[in-house]
Each structure stands twice: as C-alpha cells, then as structure tokens.
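Anyone able to model this chain together with flavin-adenine dinucleotide?
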Amino acid sequence: MMNKKIAIIGASVGGLLAAAKLQKQGFEVTIFEKGNAVGGLFSEVKTPFGQQELGMHVLYVNEEQRDFLGSIFGANSFDILKGTDVDIGGSYAFSKANFKSIYPKIENVEEQELAFREILENKSKPEKNSALGEITRRFGNFAGNQFVKPALEKLWLAAADELSAGALHCFFDLRRIVLADKANSDRLKQDSFLDSVIANPLQEKPAGSVFGGREGLVLKDERKDFNLLAKEWAEKSGVQLKFSKPAEVLNGKISISGKALSNDFHSCIVTTPTQTMFKETPKGLDQLELSIYYLKLQEKLGDSFPAYYMLCHDPSIKSSRIVNYEGYHKTKENQVATILSVEVLHEIGQQVSVEEIKSEVATVIKGVKVEEGHCFERKLKVCRPTLKNAEMLDNLQLDLQKKSPNFQQYFSGMRTDAGVFFSHQTIGMAYESALELIRKAS
Ligand SMILES: Cc1cc2nc3c(=O)[nH]c(=O)nc-3n(C[C@H](O)[C@H](O)[C@H](O)COP(=O)(O)OP(=O)(O)OC[C@H]3O[C@@H](n4cnc5c(N)ncnc54)[C@H](O)[C@@H]3O)c2cc1C
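re: yes, here you go
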C-alpha cells in the first residue's frame, strides 16, 4: 500500500529507530544513507591512537527505544546509566576536582539558594522566541542575568537578544552555573519540575526524573561491528538499507539519484539537518564550525575531572567542551592512557592549532601531561541559533512541504535554533514522527 511506503534519510540512531518501529507496524521502509556506514554522529573516528568516539557519548533513550537498539546492535553493546547517573556529566562532586575551575559558578550558598528559589517559583511556559526571556524564565533574574547570559553569549559568539530560546538547550550545560556541585545537581534531577525546566528543556512528556525518565546508553569498548550488525538486522527484518544514496533538494523536492521521493513514497523522515540536503548552503544562513581534537594523556585522570566540562566562558579559552571518556566508562579500570576530546566551536575557517589546544588543556587541568594531540578535520557546520536562522530554517522546511503537498515530510535533524541538539531531542523527534505515521495509518 502506497501510504505505508516510508523513506528515511540517514542511517544513524534516529533513522534506524524510526525504521525499526515502522517496520514492526507493517510499514515498508527504505533508509537512504549518504555515506557507506551506519552511525552518523554516533560513530567513531580513526586517530593516531586508535578509534575514538566522534560526537555523541551518551545516548538518551526510553525503554522501548533501548530494546529496539538492542535488537539492532545487540543488548550487550551498551552500559546503561539510570536515575541521577543518566546525565553523568551533569553530576560531579567538585570537592574531588583538581582542575582550574573557570566556570562561572555561584559559589555563595545564599546566592545559590536565591537562584534555586527563583527557578522554583517561576512556573511559566517556555519562551518561544528570544533567548533573553527564556534565560530569566529558566534561571531567574539573579542567575540568569549575572551568570547565564554572559556565558551563553560567549558560547554562541552572539548577543542574547539575537539568539533564539533554543540556544539555551544546546551543547552546553548551563545547569552547572546554578548547581555548582553534585548535591545540588542531584536535588534538581530528583525534582520533576526542576528536571523538566532545566534537564528536559523542551518540556516534552514525560517530564521529570532526569531527561523525561530516559536511560543513558554508553557504548562498550568490546562491542561488535555496528555496520555489519545493522546490515544483518535490516536484511532479517525486511528494511531496505541503501548506502551511498545522498538525498538532495532538486527543483524544491527531496530527491534520491535525481528522482523525487514523492513519486515512490507516501512520506519521509529526514534525520539530517534540512540545509545539508541543498547543494549550496542557503544564502544568508549563519553557521559556525565545530572542530574536534583528541588528546592522549600520559596518566589517567581518574576522579579529578568530570565526564565533561564546559570551558567557553573565559575569554582566553577557546574550547567549548572537554570530554573525559573515563568519566562515562565507569568500568574501564585498566585503561592505561586516557583520551580527552576537546570540542571547539568557532567561526568558519578559524580553526585553532593542536598546540594551542594542548597548552589550553594543560592550563585547565592541573599537572596533566599531554602526550599527543590530533585534530579531526570534520569541519562540522552548526547553525548559530539566531532568530534570523530560525526563520530561515522554518521557511526552508515549509517550502519543501508546500512543493509536495501530498508527500508528508518530517524533519528531525539537529536544529540548534529550536533547541533540538541532544540525542533525546533529535532521536526523540525521529521516533515521534514514526509514531505519528502509525497513528495516522490506523
Ligand atoms: C561534538 C558533538 C557532541 C555531542 N555529544 C552528545 C552527547 O554526549 N549526548 C547526546 O545526547 N548528544 C550529543 N550530541 C548530539 C547528537 O550527536 C545528535 O543528537 C545525534 O547524533 C543525532 O542523531 P540522528 O540519528 O538524529 O542524526 P545523525 O547522527 O546526525 O545522523 C544523520 C545521518 O544522516 C546521514 N546523512 C547526512 N546527510 C545526508 C543526506 N543528504 N542524505 C542521506 N543521508 C544523509 C549522515 O551520514 C548520518 O548517518 C553531540 C553532537 C556533537 C556534534
């Protein structure tokens, strides 16, 4: 039946999960992947010191999604983080810290209480437009204006009144500013209202108990070849998985190999950011670049550094985030060298040298000795979450839909302007699209 033929663009976690759900409900699903492997941002990169994670370190899913992932990749491929550990990087006992903390934390206990009170008292709905209103709604006047606003402007290299509310939800753990330590962080995570305001920023359901009750999946080292497993799963389940098939917008329509998808499919779910399907970057779109550096250390960091730490608020520091894999992999007791990844958000073409990143990390983490550094030249483009970009991206999607009115298109790719960044948001949206298709068909 034509209304059961669905195309999915992108064979990463979002695309695979949506496909698994649809296929189980009797839909005919074809996944078109631009590259020659599954995984997208959840895959690995070859570095001089072995395979390293590319982007996503923790995958936030609900139980049903976790079971589907288990059936695709094997249930033993992941460690599962639950409860207040779900977002393990957001909980850290700073008393153990042995690094230069340049995060603008609220150190004073009375001021911390004031910040908490202000957050608790404000139960208004999320601000849809500018970041300015959303800053004070979520963080109160005191913490919002004095701490969060300057940090946000530094991260996105733009003024808060030009940024969209979504800017607050992305790539950035603003909670640390008001939480300052593990006790406060856990207090927040256990309070369903606070969790829904801060950890679950889009306030989608179900709210509460950390990221809307999701689990955190961390890849195990000893996992099998995901590409092979996904191919086997697709073959067994009857999902068509096609590689080297980039989707492109031609004459205003999403097409594969020059042919509009609307000719053969009833609907599609696009898991890559919409603008990436255009041959040329849409004019006027304001983008930043994300570079990733990998550093091999001479000694393990152990507990002296959290799973990740944002560093973007000191004008002299270029790194946006340092990720310590050890912090996620509680079980990697015997690992000799520790690998850090350093994510740097910068203007296009203004890459930072490996040497600069090495010395920056040595400044931040006391006594750390970096053995080797490597820059992964991915040059990932990220839209600056401005109000102007938000309008452009909305229009891009509306125009695609208008051009093919009978071909329903769902967009779940990363949209920093709309607060769609972390896996529970992007993957959650791809999955929601599948659920909506199922509802419509029944
Ligand atoms: C540096 C970094 C760190 C991150 N860390 C975390 C984290 O710790 N936790 C977390 O929850 N989230 C994190 N994220 C966000 C997370 O990676 C994304 O939310 C998630 O990967 C999105 O998954 P997805 O399946 O929706 O899309 P993606 O993983 O982006 O996959 C899209 C797929 O589409 C394919 N594709 C692209 N263009 C086309 C085309 N034209 N035609 C066909 N196929 C195409 C790609 O090859 C890819 O396979 C991070 C992101 C970055 C960049």
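The radius of gyration is 21 Å.
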